[in-house]
């Protein structure tokens, strides 16, 4: 149905009505100057209001057509019905305006009274032609938006595919060692890894912060096999923040980055906070002399930008380094 449905936004309709009013005003000026009998302000008022009424009828009829008629009829009749509705938007819009103004004694009504029906039919055919042009314009606009959306999604998926695979290799090596040392721990680690990978293959690029933190916890349970439980995680988030949408693997990547660059053969404390649309991942590990965005951080920065979610920032304090995701409201 998308091939025929006119997906016109409210803003588009406001523009259409405004253009219709301007068009009606120009027509009124034409009538105003070609005939002395209709050189009154009522002519301008009638033409302008008629154009607005036609645009309003177009809005009503196209909405009815899209939402209630087209979904219930055979596809081969869609174009015919759409263009019939375009015709009636002009015919009924002008007829309605004529009827309302006929209750007055405006000169323009007296002037067009003998052939008002012919004018209504003519305007109906004009709106039919405009409907054809509008349909092509909106269809091209929608197709262009669809192509841009597909390109954007492809870029995001490509970035997700660049996520560091070393974690998987390290996890499998750790599990293989545990098999000989502690079979129960090896079994739990295998289940944790399975759960993590199950969430990883989720096709959604954006997930709730709550679900992302579940993946982070699972990730750290697996990593702590290698680091002998020397990595401590504390989470402090507001209840309202749990539903914040974040890129998949965003917090996990920041935690992974903290371990990779902050761990110094002793306990590493990582703290995650979420408050007022600001997510902060802080660690007390090795302080960098200069923060450089490598593959992982650059990847995350690009995904935040492409998904129009927020931006990645950082700050280095006396004894800790923090990465912040500032979520757009």
UniProtKB/TrEMBL annotation:
Give the Pfam families listed for this entry.
Answer: His_kinase
Gene Ontology cellular component list:
membrane
MF terms from GO for this chain are: phosphorelay sensor kinase activity
Q: Where are the transmembrane segments?
A: 12-34, 40-65, 77-100, 115-134
What InterPro entries does its record include? Bact_2-comp_sensor_kinase, HATPase_C_sf, Sig_transdc_His_kin_internal
Provide the Signal transduction histidine kinase internal region domain boundaries: 155-230
Enumerate the UniProt keywords alphabetically.
Kinase, Membrane, Transferase, Transmembrane, Transmembrane helix
| SUPFAM superfamilies linked to this entry | ATPase domain of HSP90 chaperone/DNA topoisomerase II/histidine kinase
What top-level branch of life does the organism fall under?
Bacteria
Question: Would you tell me the protein name for this molecule?
Answer: Histidine kinase
